[in-house]
Design goal:
The complex is a heterotrimer of chains A (266), B (307) and C (295). With 266 residues, chain A is α/β, with parallel strands linked by helices. Chain A is built from ten helices and eleven strands. In chain A, helix 3 (116-126) crosses helix 4 (132-145), helix 3 (116-126) packs parallel to helix 6 (165-178) and helix 4 (132-145) packs across helix 6 (165-178). Chain B folds into two domains: 2-52; 83-302, MetI-like (MetI-like fold, Orthogonal Bundle), CATH 1.10.3720.10. In chain B, strand 1 and strand 2 (78-80) form a beta hairpin. Classes of the chains: A alpha/beta (266), B mainly alpha (307), C mainly alpha (295). Chain B: Part of the binding-protein-dependent transport system for phosphate; probably responsible for the translocation of the substrate across the membrane.
């Protein structure tokens, strides 16, 4: 492996000229003694797609999981995560409320062992929505938003475990969307899928972008360049560059970014 | 906007649910912990009464050969020597483990090395059924088949350590087998491939590589089996003969700690010396069970193979 | 001896050992069923036991065994479930947890006679319950708890971590995620664990002789009031179970046909336990298929 060492002190991180969905200030993550993420300060624009790219182990997924406190039991997270004027990384924060606003889709599709309909209504019901008509409306809306409705509308009461990988992943997206969150976090949502399913997911994301702020981790650079408005490049626990996607892919400021996107490292 | 900010900082139904759920499970596990503590506490205090209240010397208790708690010996001391039962208990336990181990390892090797698929399909249910048979049924078969068989072959009454050993051997077989299977399965595949690639035969590979690597696990399995044998009460009680005598061989009736406990507790009055003496036997059982536990842990820590 | 011969020899020895073990099982089951089943009849299952005359049945013992089993499961399941959830979902990685795990292990390796004697000491004597079904059920609970707890913990652990993340990321509380998502997914494993533990409880005797007692008083099967002393449901009456009955007949019995009754009772015991095992297997498979049903 030809692993060049790059300077971590030379970074290029822009500030976003748009309304912000959330920001992090000096976010650091520790797994025990292992310092997995160093001082990440990023701003995420509202109603845009931001991609986090980098080699595996670069810390991008670790970072993403901090944003809705999914690392709580696994790692120590220091620094600020600002959302709507509140630091949601502080102790007295109700993490369950946080996750209602900032929802996450994971790398491997993880539908519940329930029917397709229940996959979507389960969390809604637990949040006090009992009205059947409203629930049905949400099921239809969210499945349409995830471009899955046409494929499953006749099978809503069948087990979600029978769906194909791509369908299951879109169901997971629909499940999040049904909660009407503010921000969607996606952790390599297409990495376990075939190209056709991947294309469908990307299409879905483009649609969702109108109403949601999306932050997506991907190791697929073409994917980032196709869908993202902004892109951040992670390397060994550091954010080295953050800029408009086009800028990152055509004229990166940092040597490491350039090497990574041109396939010259790792 | 402000409402969201407020919600983010205050508790909600979800946090209350979490407190509620956590509390319930904490209570349950605290109950289990309390239970273990009270078992240890009650058996220990009752078991020590023989020495604290009746002032029997511990050494006399452990080394004495006469068990007759109601009677005094010529020095005016109560006759509570537990040695015959301790010896018998250890004899049946060790013998049962010695007999069972080759069978267990043979079956385990068959299930892992020789015919993994077919072997597991046939032998897994065999092991489960052997576990499933209740100990009184083992005792009953021991009493109606093994005891007469020993009587006809070797003379005597048929009751004794040999009969106990044979019954216990079958009872600990599934325990030792299934744990051995686990430990042999845990030996990495490349150990075998490496050995076979060097031209070793299957048996050489099994004997020199697989069994070597699985030794700590197999030892643990044997100790678990011994722990089960040592604590088994009724099956042994039915075939051992229940005479509190120093065993003179495998064929004379004798008595284990457990068998003496099961026969005796009902015939003595709480708080009297004969009763206290029985609780002291129970304490030995408890302590031995802890010792087996510690041994397992010790071997587990020393074992080279990690799961 | 050259390596080839020793290889063949060793293989032969292993085959012989395996054959012996299978032979032992076949003999055990064959013996019990062959000698026992001829004694099982409607009369045997529906009439009361006799002490001094031949021809007694096992009606009360069979009922007592089942009643004790049900009571034991009612008491032990909730506690085991809570403890299993604690160990699998909440337990932090620290010394308290490892102490608790050790306690559970110690409890599971205690001889059942010691557990029974503890029940005798605390419930029968100290709490003045006397020999009673309730004391028996409590003793069996102690005996059953560690195994059931562990099987529930394992079933919960088998549910993918992804399922928990999915629930949590939707803003559900941990508790709702566990009870609503993880637990339902673990049901097949938990059920199998319960049924297998039921088999063990059904055949247990050592923990019962000094808790549930060794006598089966005549009870009135028409009296459905558990508070009545004559009612078959009264949990405070002594109750000899099938397993204890077999033991009693063979150690201090004066019943002339003790051997026949023991065979019959053993066969009943084995058949019930075989049914439990079979049920556990079938139910587990069925539920698994149902949950992962393809369309």
């Amino acid at each position: 492996m030809n692993m060049q060492t790059y300077a971590f002190d030379k970074t290029h991180i822009i500030q976003i000229p748009l309304e912000k969905a959330m920001t992090t200030e000096n976010l650091q993550v520790f797994y025990g003694d292992n310092h997995a993420m160093h001082d990440a300060s990023l701003e995420f624009p509202r109603y845009r797609i931001t991609a986090l790219i980098g080699a595996s182990g670069s810390g991008k997924s670790t970072y993403l999981r901090c944003l809705n406190r999914m690392n709580d039991r696994i790692a120590t997270v220091k620094g600020k995560i600002m959302y709507r004027g509140t630091d949601i990384n502080s102790d007295h924060i109700n993490v369950y409320e946080v996750r209602k606003h900032i929802s996450m889709v994971f790398q491997r599709p993880n539908p519940f062992a329930k029917s397709i309909r229940e996959n979507i209504t389960f969390a809604l019901k637990r949040n006090g929505i009992k009205d059947k008509a409203e629930l049905n409306k949400r099921v239809e809306e969210s499945l349409k938003a995830a471009a899955l409705w046409d494929e499953v509308k006749d099978d809503l009461d069948k087990s979600a475990l029978a769906l194909s990988g791509g369908q299951a992943q879109r169901l997971c997206i629909a499940r999040c969307v049904a909660m009407k969150p503010d921000i969607l976090l996606l952790d390599e949502p297409a990495s376990a899928l075939d190209p056709i399913s991947t294309a469908k997911i990307e299409e879905t994301l483009q649609q969702l972008r109108k109403n949601y702020s999306i932050i997506i981790v991907t190791h697929n650079m073409q994917q980032a360049s196709r869908i993202a408005d902004y892109t951040a490049f992670f390397h060994m626990g550091h954010v080295l560059e953050y800029d408009e996607t086009e800028k990152i892919f055509t004229n990166p400021e940092i040597k490491a970014t350039e090497d990574y996107i041109s396939g010259n490292f790792g | 906007m402000d409402e969201i900010k407020k919600n983010l900082q205050s508790s909600s139904k979800a946090t209350h649910q979490d407190y509620f759920g956590k509390t319930i499970t904490y209570i349950c596990i605290a109950f289990v912990g309390l239970l273990v503590i009270s078992i240890l506490y009650f058996i220990t205090t009752r078991g020590l009464a023989t020495f604290t209240e009746n002032h029997v010397s511990l050494w006399k208790f452990l080394s004495g050969k006469n068990w007759n708690p109601g009677m005094l010996d010529k020095h005016g001391q109560p006759q509570i020597g537990a040695l015959p039962m301790i010896v018998t208990s250890f004899s049946v336990t060790v013998l049962a483990a010695v007999v069972a181990t080759p069978f267990a390892i043979g079956v385990a090797l068959f299930m892992t090395e020789i015919a993994p698929e077919k072997g597991t399909k046939i032998l897994q249910p065999v092991i489960e059924l052997l576990v499933g048979i209740p100990s009184v049924v083992y005792g009953f078969i021991g009493l109606s088949v093994i005891v007469p068989l020993i009587r006809h072959s070797f003379g005597g009454t048929g009751f004794g350590i040999l009969a106990g050993t044979l019954v216990l051997f079958v009872m600990v077989l599934p325990t030792i087998t299934s744990l051995s299977v686990d430990s042999i399965k845990a030996v990495p595949m490349f150990y075998r491939s490496a050995s076979l690639a060097l031209g070793a035969t299957r048996w050489q590979t099994i004997y020199k590589v697989v069994l070597r690597a699985a030794t700590p696990g197999i030892l643990t399995a044997i100790i678990f089996g011994m722990s089960r044998a040592f604590g088994e009460a009724l099956a042994v009680q039915m075939v051992i003969g229940n005479a509190v005598l120093m065993p003179h061989g495998l064929l004379t009736p004798s008595s284990t700690l457990t068998s003496q406990l099961t026969t005796g507790i009902g015939n003595t009055t709480m708080g009297t010396l004969p009763n206290n003496a029985l609780w002291s036997l129970a304490l030995i059982l408890l302590l031995m069970s802890l010792v087996f536990n510690i041994l397992v842990r010790f071997i587990g820590k020393k074992g080279s193979l990690k799961k | 001896m050259n390596p080839k011969t020793s290889d063949q020899l060793a293989t032969g020895v292993i085959y012989a050992l395996v054959a012996a073990v299978i032979g032992i099982l076949i003999f055990l089951l064959g013996y019990i069923l062959m000698t026992g089943i001829p004694h099982i009849s409607g009369h045997f299952l529906t009439s009361a036991a006799q002490s001094f005359r031949a021809g007694g049945g096992v009606r009360d013992q069979l009922f007592n065994s089942l009643y004790l089993l049900v009571l034991t499961l009612i008491i032990s399941f909730p506690i085991a479930l809570g403890s299993g959830i604690y160990l699998s979902e909440y337990a932090p990685e620290n010394w308290v947890t490892s102490l608790i795990r050790t306690s559970v292990e110690v409890l599971s390796s205690l001889p059942s006679v010691v557990v029974g004697l503890f029940g005798y000491l605390l419930f029968v004597i100290r709490f003045g319950m006397g020999f009673s079904i309730l004391a028996g059920a409590i003793a069996l609970t102690f005996f059953n708890l560690p195994l059931l707890t562990r099987s529930i913990e394992e079933s919960l652990q088998d549910v993918s971590e992804l399922q928990r993340e999915a629930g949590l990321s939707l803003g559900l509380s941990r508790w709702k995620t566990i009870t609503g998502i993880v637990l339902p997914a673990a049901v097949p494993g938990i059920l199998t664990g319960i049924i297998l533990s039921a088999g063990r409880v059904f055949g247990e005797a050592a923990a019962l002789i000094y808790t549930a007692g060794q006598s089966a008083p005549t009870v009135n099967y028409g009296d459905w009031n558990p508070m009545d002393s004559a009612s078959f449901l009264n949990p405070m009456r002594p109750a000899e179970t099938l397993a204890v009955h077999i033991w009693k007949l063979n150690t201090e019995g004066v019943t002339p046909d003790a051997a026949q009754i023991s065979s019959g009772a053993s066969a009943v015991l084995i058949v019930v336990i075989l049914l439990f095992n079979l049920m556990a297997r079938l139910l587990g498979n069925w539920m698994y298929k149902k949950m992962t049903a393809t369309r």
